[in-house]
Amino acid sequence: MPSILNGTINSNLTYNESAKNISDSEQRPFVSSIYAQIIWSSLFGSMVICAIIGNLTVITIILSYRRMRTKTNIFLFNLSFADLLMATFNAMFNFVFMLNSHWAFGTIYCTVNNFFSYLTVSCSVFTITVTSLDR
Question: What is the 3-state secondary structure (H, E, C) of 26-92?
Answer without folding.
Answer: HHCCCCCCHHHHHHHHHHHHHHHHHHHHHHHHHHHHHHHCHHHCCHHHHHHHHHHHHHHHHHHHHHH
